[in-house]
Every structure is written in structure tokens, then in C-alpha cells.
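Can anyone check this?
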Amino acid sequence: MSASGFDSGFYWATLLDIDIVLGNFIDGRLAGLIAFRHVPENLGNFVDLLEVAKPFRHRQVAKKLLAMVMLDSFQTPDFDGFMQLSLNKMAFSTST
């Protein structure tokens, strides 16, 4: 996996053992990643990290990734479609 455009400095492979990681591709290039986990006691999913590659920012990649996590919560048996986020764990950048 190329880290091109991902500037948070987070090493995504560390989440692969504990979280579900989904990616969004545009024109064959990795545009964004989201890591989440099932939290049965809360009847939904918890988003641990969300990052969009710099060339794909302002192209609605983040909302598509969040929608995929929401759909997973609706499709998981005994879940109610809830999703939780923790903004302090997300990779934000003000540069374009």
C-alpha cells in the first residue's frame, strides 16, 4: 500500500489486527481509509481513524467512508445502526 498523499504520519498497518479497515479508491488510487470496530454493548460501530489522501480531499471521500461504516452497522445482526466517532483520533489537516 502506497502512503502517497497520506500525511497524518499514522501507520495504518497497526490497526489491521484489531479493526475493520475499509478503503475508497478513485481511478485505481487509494483515496481514503477508515478503521472501525464492532461494539456490541453499544449496538453499533466505533470509528477509530479516518484519513483522506491529500489529492482527494474536498471530493466527498470521507462521507462515503462514513456511510460504509453506517451501512455495516445496519447490516450487522443485533445492531441498531449506530456509529460513534472520536474526533481527537481522526487525522485532520488544514492544508489543501
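Reply from J.R.: I decoded it. Strands lie at 20-26, 29-39, 44-52, 82-85.
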